[in-house]
Amino acid sequence: KSLEKKSIYDMECMDVIDYDVSIFHTGTYYSKTKFPEQYVSDSFTRMIILNKKGNPQAAILIAKEMTKFLEEKNVHTNYDLIVPVPNHPQSYPKDSRAVSIAKQLGNIMKIEYNPDVLEKLTNIGMKNYSQYFKSKIYRIWRLYKLNPDINIANKKILLVDDVITQGNTIRNCMCELKKGNPESITVICAAKTHSDYKNFCKL
């Protein structure tokens, strides 16, 4: 019964594909398991790693690169609110990963930033699981929750993440943000994982 109830969440999110959303990524992230040499040598990948560990200078440098990218796309002034993909308190430091990048983006772009719009409900370590298994988990479980006390109605949202692989996290967060009736959602990720896996989940 619990599985059936959780599956309803996936059904509620299926219309996200019809929502007004643009998705961008700035650079490439090389995973340690598949690309060990590039993981060590690629400068942008190293910045991502340093930011995960809470290095504030790495967050600033990444945010500058993302701002430059958005300016080149001429979409850097279209937002009312910057929302990061949140960390679970038992996994990474609160002010790291997407949260620290989003904070610096807000400072650089002079746009309101709020790290409390979304909450991560469950800490799931899935590094050793297959991409297929990860997709199933993200489609069945509700991993993020929209804060009902924060009004995002009719706002242009910039959703920020540090790394996108299949798009499962972004899809989950978009499902929640959509409940707040924003005008639009734009997704910007610092990097896309370099992989042979070519199928993103449906957003």
How does the SSE layout of this entry go?
Layout: H1 2-12, E1 21-29, H2 36-41, H3 43-52, H4 56-72, E2 81-84, H5 97-109, E3 118-120, H6 131-140, E4 144-146, E5 156-164, H7 168-178, E6 184-193
Parallel strand pairs: 1-6, 2-5, 5-6
Antiparallel strand pairs: 3-4
Helix pairs in contact: 3-4, 4-5
Please report the total strand number as a whole number. 6
The helix tally amounts to: 7
Strand order of the largest sheet: 1-6-5-2
Task: Give the helix proportion (percent range).
Answer: 25-40%
- Compute the average pLDDT: 82
- Oligomer description: single chain
Strand content: 15-25%
Your description of this structure?
- The protein is of the alpha/beta class and 203 residues long.
- The protein has helices spanning 2-12, 36-41, 43-52, 56-72, 97-109, 131-140, 168-178, and strands at residues 21-29, 81-84, 118-120, 144-146, 156-164, 184-193.
- It is globular and about 45 Å long.
- It starts with a helix and ends in a 10-residue tail after the last strand.
- Mean pLDDT is 82; it is low at 1-11, 14-18 and 197-203.
In summary, what is this structure?
The chain has 203 residues and is of the alpha/beta class. Helices cover 38% and strands 19% of the residues.
Task: Give the key terms.
single chain, 203 residues, alpha/beta, 4-stranded parallel β-sheet, two-stranded antiparallel ribbon, 7 helices, 6 strands, 38% helix, disordered N terminus, disordered C terminus
